[in-house]
Design a protein that fits this description.
The complex is a heterodimer of chains A (469) and B (197). Chain A has 469 residues and is an alpha+beta fold. Chain A is built from 17 helices and 14 strands. In chain A, the strands form 4 sheets. In chain A, strands 10-11-3-14 form a 4-stranded mixed β-sheet. A 4-stranded antiparallel β-sheet of chain A has the order 6-5-4-7. In chain A, strands 9-8-12-13 form a 4-stranded antiparallel β-sheet, with no helix packed on it. The chains are: A alpha+beta (469), B alpha/beta (197).
Chain lengths: 469, 197
């Protein structure tokens, strides 16, 4: 009796420890709430400082998020060199990180939040946007073009991952447009044309011509025809004129060059977790899980212990899965006015739509891993419990059950200070100082005006304005 | 309590670690070795184009004709744009440099600088007018004018269905007499790849 009581005490202590260790049920967003609040308030200096004191982000498994958030806050603080110091580390990390044995073990036996964060696919593209802008602000055009080339590599990797399927996120049109703009900034209109043409092709192949919430921007139509003309590709000029039902009239380049103005609206969606209840079933093709609506195959190796499994014991497996929750928007649209002309900013990347759609696309695969992970814990519990006549075995089985309950947690991490959507336009500049009025329309219907000063140098220059609210 | 009962689930859990653990391994390979991974344009394609072009341009009749028309005076060539009209971002400089190198190594053709590098040279010459000593200062107007310009284009056609893809590249280089606008040589390299996933 004394031995059993002592064991129960140990058991209780272990459980208490586990409860503390696993942070309860709070999501990643809740755990970084302090930092996130500073970003929402526009207090980037405090946000940046906060990152250095955030224990969660300092953990090895969250290193990528730390680099991304540091890079973003330094970018917002107009310190492009420091920003790229961290974004380069993040880029390198995303390229090299692999799931090692330890990573898979903690992911399987605890939960995916304990694995190394490896980045969402769209984050791997957007990092080049910030890196290239930082380089351009530092007047390092050649380095910005390196980012354009790295977008090509990322595109190849992404296309390869999904075998170039149009119903998967295998290409990113925003990144292709960026490539074109960066090549143009470097005076390479040939590669700019290729990038624009590739982007047009992706839009054309997308259902209803909409690529993850974005229709082909009019600016892209103009740019592909203009660069075709500048390269002397008359057959392409004719082809796109016919396609877009337009007539291209060559214009003299503005003497002060042009400004590519990006407007980043709102904040990216944050991940929350949702619950599902699945039951294990056996079909002709093997084991699968079902919740009445979805059928998810079992992805583990079927061991001998699975042959004698009592399916009745696996009828309500509670699993958690991440879901994106869009952040409410303060602004709906923007217009830029300069030198007597107005231009409407067009949506070029919808992070909200991308995040939700890509998570939906990988639901089946991730749910299969999640359920199989849960089954491992359940089998361990039932194997230990045996026929339920042994108090000690029962105690340990209870401990495993409680552990499973506490440790089951969805991975709710993502780069949360990305914008909800990115808009852009091109504005002709006069030589010298130019004052651009950016008018953002609030949800309430009111307008806010922001003045941006840009030097017209005769070249293509860039500016990104963020409304991270 | 038979703890060996725990072995099965733990072994089962371990068996789920189907994700292979891998550490980065770098192996140096011969640059001439053909390694096709994705089916995209790669170093083997660039090398094949360079071999085709350098192998034919110096043995073509335009060179013999020029030497006989100009009393053995070597032709001067400038390399212009190689327009990329393909679906990929292809660095033409990788094979045009090989052609340039063959001009210099063969000592049959003289090469002059073009594009941004020429701008830089001219900038340096202009700078010398104010900053260099009179004896070392280089004069304006003494550049070697080119007799011929090498230009080119890269085109591609992609045909794909399901997991199969045929990629066809055609690289053309053309040499044009700057005085007469006459095309004196056309080099061509066709590359076709069948990619199956």
């Amino acid at each position: 009796m004394i031995i059993i009581n002592r064991l129960k005490l140990v058991q209780a202590s272990v459980l208490m420890g586990l409860m503390l260790f696993l942070f309860g049920c709070s999501t990643y967003n809740q755990q970084i709430a302090h930092y996130y609040a500073h970003v929402k308030d526009g207090n980037y200096a405090a946000a940046n400082k906060d990152l250095d004191h955030n224990k969660l982000l300092k953990k090895d498994r969250n290193r990528l998020l730390y680099f991304l958030e540091k890079g973003k806050t330094y970018h917002m603080l107009h310190q492009p060199d420091s920003s790229n110091l961290y974004l380069n580390k993040a880029d390198e990390y995303m390229e090299e990180v692999r799931a090692d044995a330890k990573d898979v073990a903690v992911g399987t036996l605890v939960n995916p939040m304990m694995e190394k964060y490896k980045g969402e696919d769209f984050e791997k593209f957007i990092i080049h946007y910030y890196k290239a802008l930082n380089y351009l602000y530092l007047n390092k055009t050649e380095d910005a073009i390196v980012e354009a080339r790295r977008i090509s590599l990322q595109t190849q990797q992404q296309s390869d991952k999904f075998n170039d399927k149009t119903n998967r996120y295998s290409k990113d049109t925003f990144s292709m447009i960026l490539q074109g703009l960066f090549y143009e900034a470097g005076g390479d209109v040939n590669n700019a044309f290729i990038a624009y043409r590739n982007a047009v092709e992706v839009y054309e192949k997308s259902p209803s011509g909409i690529h993850y919430g974005v229709s082909m921007p009019k600016q892209l139509e103009k740019d592909v025809i203009r660069t075709a003309y500048l390269n002397g590709f008359q057959s392409d000029v004719d082809y796109f004129e016919k396609k877009f039902n337009t007539q291209y009239r060559p214009e003299k380049s503005p003497e002060g060059g042009e400004l590519v103005l990006f407007w980043e609206n709102g904040l990216a969606p944050v991940k929350d977790q949702q619950e599902f209840f699945f039951a294990l079933s056996r079909g002709v093709a093997g084991f699968y899980f079902t919740d009445g609506q979805n059928q998810v195959p079992f992805v583990g190796v079927v061991g001998p212990e699975m042959n004698n499994i009592n399916l009745g014991k696996f009828q309500s497996l509670r699993v958690t899965f991440p879901k994106y929750v869009p952040s409410p928007l303060f602004y709906t649209s923007a217009t830029a006015s300069a030198n007597g002309g107005d231009s409407h900013l067009e949506k070029v990347e919808d992070v909200n739509e991308l995040a939700i759609a890509t998570l939906r696309q990988r639901f089946g695969k991730e749910m299969a891993t999640t359920l199989s992970r849960l089954l491992v814990k359940k089998i361990a519990e039932y194997t230990v419990r045996g026929d339920g006549k042994d108090d000690l075995r029962d105690g340990i089985a209870d401990a495993i059950q409680l552990y499973s309950l506490l440790s089951e947690k969805a991975d709710t991490r993502n780069w949360q200070t990305l914008p909800s959507a990115i808009y852009y336009t091109r504005i002709p500049l006069k030589k010298g100082q130019n004052e651009i009025q950016l008018k953002t329309k609030m949800v309430s219907g009111k307008d806010e005006t922001h003045t941006i000063s840009v030097e017209g140098t005769g070249r293509l220059v860039f500016y990104n304005y963020s409304s991270l609210k | 309590m038979r703890f060996k009962n725990l072995i099965i689930p733990v072994a089962f859990a371990t068996s789920m670690m189907f994700v292979s653990s891998c550490s980065r391994k770098v192996t140096r390979i011969d640059p001439n070795q053909q390694v096709d991974l994705s089916g995209n344009w790669n170093n083997t394609d660039a090398r094949q184009v360079a071999e085709e072009m350098t192998g034919t341009i110096l043995n073509a009749t335009w060179l013999i004709n020029h030497l006989s028309d100009h009393a053995g005076k070597k032709p001067v060539v400038i390399v212009g744009m190689v327009y990329n009209k393909s679906h990929e971002h292809i660095e033409a400089e990788i094979f045009t440099k090989e052609v340039e190198r063959s001009f210099i190594q063969s000592e049959k053709v003289r090469l002059v600088q073009g594009g941004k590098k020429r701008e830089e040279i001219r900038g340096e010459r202009a700078d010398q007018q104010t900053n260099s000593s009179t004896s070392s200062m280089k004069k304006f107007g003494l550049e070697n004018g080119a007799d011929y310009m090498l230009q080119g284009s890269i085109n591609s056609i992609v045909d794909a269905i399901n997991r199969k893809k045929v990629v066809y590249y055609q690289v053309n280089l053309e040499l044009t007499n700057i005085q007469t606008n006459e095309v004196v040589w056309i080099g061509e390299k066709k590359i076709a790849k069948y990619v199956k996933n």
